[in-house]
Design goal:
Number of strands: 2
Radius of gyration: 24 Å
Distance between the termini: 14 Å
Strand content: under 5%
Helix content: 55-70%
Number of helices: 20
Strand order of the largest sheet: 1-2
Order of helices and strands: HHHHHHHHHHHHHHHHEEHHHH
Structural class: mainly alpha
């Protein structure tokens, strides 16, 4: 009984651990897996994988296989690099996320996991972080005294990391639907409270300075409007109020106004630039004027940074250039890629190196408009580049299974029980997290992978969640 409560507490702590950083998330994950194995014991060895679990396991296997082949190649055919051994080790450790998924699935199957802890925690942190961002915007510091990262980003508890808006968006629909459940039997309180919560979450994301999360939050609200008949009127009123408040803020704050007016150039504008660059690269034997400029700048002592958020020396979208670079790298190993976290190493091998500064320039011998970073800043492009067609195909199969789940189970989104609200929150959150054109972190990092596995586990275990004793319609959410 004690171990069960502790397991559920640690599981519910995951949203808070994301605020505290990767070490805390890793520790939380390790404790959860250890306690989960202790509770399940031999049952974990008896599980029969359904089709979805088999496909997910194959994806993890491909990650390990592609990284192993890359390590063997570097060991016997190329110059040995210690970084390849590190990547091989990480590909093995990466299986911890599949173990986590398996444990959540089994604990839920045997009715040992109470998702109320997670639901409550996720709802609380999304609303609290939003309020903290609003507080920081008006007072210049947050509730623990942290100042904004820059004049463009209000980061709250995240300090120098400009990710507050993405964090709020990740858990915003848990906060919204948690509120809807709490006040489901109180008509007027329900209307007022949900409208207030939607505006707190929306304004929090707006003020964070993270533009894509703001756009995705609005898209998520449209999805919720379509899926939930009970909330249509509330959402309509809340969005009208949100747009009015956002308009008042932007009219008095030129920085926020300019940032959101330029959102076009970072969405549709990127697609246009990408098409433009592809057409330019079809021309062969053409010397790039920009390449010559970059060479002169290097000789003169100009050092271009490799950070994706840096200024673009060619005046073009850095995300479009990253995608073009990723496709260049993928074309050299189309079937299995070069393994986990290989993008940065492969990218730098394609570019000139400046021995004086020991840096990599933004130009390749026969290419132009390329850019290096730690990862391509898009989940799909990263999987294609680092696991090849095989890993990318498995990812598409998983996405297809998710789409089938949505269309086959539209009726479960209509009910107002807590289990149904949880699954609806997870479904919308996963749709937003895996939105194809958004800029992302790396799919192979602790926080991003942990979040994806957590949300996916709810959907994978939806039948068990709906049948669970922990999700009775009249159950007390705080027990």
């Amino acid at each position: 009984m004690v171990s069960s409560r502790l397991t559920n507490f640690i599981f519910g702590f995951f949203p808070i651990s994301f605020i505290l950083g990767n070490p805390t998330t890793n520790l939380n994950l390790a404790l959860f897996c250890i306690l989960g194995i202790f509770q399940l014991k031999s049952e974990i060895l008896k599980i029969k994988f359904d089709f979805a679990l088999k496909v997910i396991f194959l994806f993890f296997l491909v990650v390990f296989l592609s990284t192993s082949l890359s390590f063997i190649k570097s060991l016997y055919f190329d110059e040995y690099e210690y970084g390849n051994l590190v990547r091989l080790t990480k590909s093995i450790i990466f299986f911890r996320f599949f173990l986590m998924l398996l444990i959540i699935h089994l604990l839920c199957k045997f009715d040992l996991l109470n998702f109320k802890y997670f639901f409550t925690s996720a709802a609380f942190v999304s609303i609290f972080v939003s309020l903290d961002i609003i507080f920081q915007y008006y007072f210049g510091f947050n509730v623990i005294g942290l100042k904004p990262a820059t004049i463009y980003y209000y980061t709250g508890f995240f300090g120098d990391e400009q990710i507050a808006g993405g964090f709020i968006q990740n858990f915003s629909f848990f906060g919204l639907l948690f509120t809807a459940f709490l006040f489901k039997n109180k008509k007027y309180a329900k209307y007022i409270t949900i409208i207030i919560v939607i505006n707190i979450l929306g304004i929090g994301i707006l003020l964070s300075g993270n533009r894509m999360p703001a756009l995705l939050f609005l898209f998520g609200m449209v999805v919720l409007f379509l899926l939930s008949n009970d909330l249509k009127k509330i959402i309509s009123i809340a969005l009208v109020i949100l747009f009015i408040v956002a308009g008042l803020i932007s009219s008095s704050d030129k920085i926020i106004k300019n940032r959101y007016e330029s959102l076009y150039h970072h969405t549709i504008g990127q697609v246009i630039l990408l098409i433009k660059n592809f057409k330019q690269n079809e021309k062969t034997g053409e010397k790039s004027a920009e390449t010559e400029i970059a060479k002169k700048e290097l000789k003169s002592g100009y050092i271009p940074t490799l950070r994706a958020e840096s200024s673009n020396i060619f005046g073009e979208s850095h995300r479009a250039r990253l995608i073009i670079t990723a496709l260049d790298i993928w074309s050299r190993n189309k079937i299995l890629g070069n393994g986990i976290k290989s993008f940065r190493m492969d990218c730098q091998k394609l570019f000139y190196k400046n021995p004086e500064y020991n840096i990599t320039a933004f130009i390749e011998k026969d290419k132009k408009n390329r850019l290096c970073s730690n990862h391509p800043h898009n989940y799909y492009v990263e999987v294609l580049t680092e696991t090849g067609i095989v890993g990318f195909s498995l990812m598409l199969i998983i996405a297809f299974l998710f789409c089938i789940f949505i269309f086959k189970n539209l009726t479960i989104f209509k009910d107002d029980k807590i289990g149904n609200f949880l699954i609806l929150s997870a479904t919308i959150s996963l749709v937003l997290e895996m939105f194809p054109i958004k800029s992302t972190g790396s799919v192979f990092t602790t926080n991003d992978t942990t979040y994806i596995i957590l949300i996916s586990s709810f959907i994978l275990s939806y039948k068990s969640i709906l049948k669970s004793r922990n999700f009775g319609q009249n159950s007390n959410i705080f027990l």
